[in-house]
């Protein structure tokens, strides 16, 4: 019942919550030791609550955002589940180093519940589209790519999160104007595949930039740019997978080939972009030619299309099968208030201009 559930637990080590989708913690805690990219919560015992209905699309998750109200399973099974997603840092990267949280409590109107100990369960599996093969979720040390955003309606550029791919290579990175890059053989891959990254705040080998470029009456246009920051790696036959609700109505893709992916037959919101053969299917190592780009023209669905609340930006992005880290939802380019009033403002401007013209004409006479 309202005001809904509250979930709490204690971390086993010094874990932090980098970001959350579908819920939020009630307190951030002391994150003063972090510079640049600040975690969502640094408390040893975080307290989590559900988000309210109507939150921005980029903060939603399946079965979330009901204000913590959960129906009885026998009454409505579809409304009896509440879910959210947590990105955890400093917790380890393998089954041996990750420790289970403890002391779970679920509170709500009434006395609440004390939960039993957390249990290790089998990894999540995913069924391929032909339903003949399962793949298993894996724990990665760090992402291998990140995403940045920009738009025509806001001058703010939302960069990749700081240290999005980990900063362990920060000491060995090189600046793009370094003399080291002129040495013969610098681009030759090493046997251990150790990267030679350009020094950036995100320290990712690959960055995907999504720019909301133009808005037409019935269409809108997006520019995608993929940049390689690894001087020892080029990408042959690269691929980019994007999830966005308007990919169900792609009118034209420029410079890339495109194929819709329909993992769920009734939902067409995911597509794969890849290079045109002999044109841009090879992305060179970092440098002047280490990027590929294209534009997408999509037809609007008047029932769903919006520039509000981050709707115009992708929900998930994958490069060569690896999920890229998105910026925190509250940093997305926002729609200025003036845009909401654009029809009124334009009308007022038109009338003012007409009056000014008449008055000026009168005085000239």
Please tell me about this protein's structure:
Its main location: membrane. It is a lipid-anchor; GPI-anchor. It is globular and about 70 Å long. The chain has 365 residues and is mainly beta. It is built from 2 helices and 22 strands. It has helices at 337-340, 342-364; strands spanning 6-10, 16-21, 23-25, 47-50, 85-89, 102-107, 113-114, 125-127, 134-136, 145-151, 154-158, 206-215, 219-228, 235-236, 239-243, 250-254, 256-261, 270-275, 282-283, 291-299, 316-319, 322-323. The strands form 6 sheets. It has a 6-stranded mixed sheet, with no helix packed on it. Strands 3-4-1-6-7 form a 5-stranded antiparallel sheet, with no helix packed on it. It has 2 domains: 1-116, Immunoglobulin-like (Sandwich), CATH 2.60.40; 145-331, Sandwich (Immunoglobulin-like), CATH 2.60.40. 7% of the residues lie in helices and 30% in strands. Strand 21 and strand 22 form a beta hairpin. The longest helix is centred in the C-terminal third of the chain and has 23 residues, at 342-364. The model is unreliable at 338-365 (pLDDT under 50).
Question: What's the layout of helices and strands?
Answer:
Blueprint: E1 6-10, E2 16-21, E3 23-25, E4 47-50, E5 85-89, E6 102-107, E7 113-114, E8 125-127, E9 134-136, E10 145-151, E11 154-158, E12 206-215, E13 219-228, E14 235-236, E15 239-243, E16 250-254, E17 256-261, E18 270-275, E19 282-283, E20 291-299, E21 316-319, E22 322-323, H1 337-340, H2 342-364
Parallel strand pairs: 10-12
Antiparallel strand pairs: 1-4, 1-6, 2-5, 3-4, 6-7, 8-9, 10-11, 12-13, 13-20, 14-19, 15-18, 15-21, 16-20, 17-18, 21-22
